[in-house]
Amino acid sequence: MSEQKFGSMLCPDCGKLISVNAEACMHCGRKNPGMWGLGPALQNALRSYGFTEVVTAMCVAYFIVSLLLDLKAIFKGGLFDFLGPSNYSLVMLGATGAHPALEGRWWTLVTAVYLHGGLMHIFFNLMFLRQIAPQVEELFGTMRLIFIYTFAGIIGFIVSNFKGIPLTIGASGALFGLLGALVAYGRIRGGTFGESVYRAGLQNALIMFMFGFFMSAVNNWAHGGGFIGGFLAVYLVGFAEQGRENFRVQVLALAAVGVTVLCFGMVVWQFIGG
Length: 274
Hints:
It is a single chain. α7 runs antiparallel to α10 and α7 (about 140-160) crosses α11 (about 245-274). The protein has helices at about 40-50, 50-70, 85-95, 100, 110, 120-140, 140-160, 170-190, 190-215, 220-235, 245-274; strands at about 10, 15-20. A two-stranded antiparallel sheet has the order 1-2. The chain folds into two domains: about 1-50, no CATH class; about 55-274, Up-down Bundle (Rhomboid-like fold). The chain is globular, with a radius of gyration of 19 Å. Mean pLDDT is about 85; it is low at about 1-5. The two termini are about 30 Å apart. It is built from eleven helices and two strands.
């Protein structure tokens, strides 16, 4: 992806045409509306590939790497962790939990979102991602979706680590955050449509919470924390009907992407550093 350095764009605040390099919008005065080309570049990239497709590719690629790190372990375990990586692989690639947190491995709060413990684990998470992410993207926009997903995943694992779960992985906390965002949307918007979104989001969350209580491998603390994170994120970024994805939303989305890249960089650095 190359940075968009030339050309025009719509100001995220007033919606009028400006240069991507403008220091301020000539119409509404918004400073650095084009984020020096980074905002439009990110939006164009995600329009070409799609948020769901990008996250799916990252999870699948990381899953394959986690298997290759310890091939002898992949056929051990039960149904939920069948064809799954060993704990050694997961720890090396950035699994989070109370133990990594005590060791100061802060980056695992992000990298663990993209790790999965088995074929069934990644299949169900990615299937749910493909169902829920497009709905959230339609109601919130791509930049808000990026922030909500990342923020919810981090909050979910912070709660889980605080409660002492020793080692944990998976995208489900971030996915619960998307449900939390839908519930917040319905609560704020109101009306017939808002009420239907609120009920659907809450019902799906409750069903999945109940499902988690019957499976020992499910981390409901991360689910609950992620749901709360997604709910609160809406009050930070709003949703599409409240206005365009303005400068502040772009900054938060770019920060989420930057933090994600940094966290994966820390994993690479750990490998190199031994």
